[in-house]
Specification:
49% of the residues lie in helices and 0% in strands. The chain has 2 domains: 6-60; 76-123, no CATH class. With 134 residues, it is mainly α. α2 packs across α3, α3 (32-39) crosses α4 (43-52) and α5 (76-88) crosses α7.
Length: 134
């Protein structure tokens, strides 16, 4: 059926939903394993698209891989406090805010300085160079 392979056709296709539709239709006629052989994919890929297909072309669209919820995310009100403190003290690093015992500047208006590094990383327009920075 596909002499070039499913992934090559998928990459070169303008709209991959039509290729997935052909895959699902072939699987419904011939079965999962023959469709997997014909399109040169694993049977679990065929089953995935057959399960997602609900009769509409929109159901064959790629789904987002972003997490649906983030249980450990810093609350927005704490993020606001952190960002305002960072604006007051622009040269202040996360490590200095975290350890006030080492002589770093104090951040009196923050409830929990431990959350600073993550909040600053998510709101900062500049990314750190190394993995050792916040």
């Amino acid at each position: 059926m596909c002499p070039h392979g499913y992934y090559t056709l998928l990459r070169e296709s303008r709209d991959p939903r039509y290729l997935r539709l052909r895959l699902v239709q072939y699987a419904k006629q011939q079965g999962v394993k023959p469709a997997a052989r014909a399109f040169d994919v694993q049977p679990r890929i065929v089953r995935k698209w057959c399960d997602r297909y609900d009769g509409t072309l929109a159901s064959l669209q790629d789904q987002s891989r972003a997490p649906k919820h983030q249980p450990n995310r810093t609350p927005p009100e704490d993020e606001e406090k952190i960002v305002t403190a960072k604006k007051k003290l622009p040269m202040l690093l996360c490590e200095a805010l975290r350890s006030t015992s080492r002589g770093g500047p104090k951040a009196e208006d923050l409830d929990e300085p431990v959350l600073l590094c993550e909040a600053l990383r998510s709101t900062s327009p500049i990314r750190p160079r190394s993995s050792t920075a916040c």
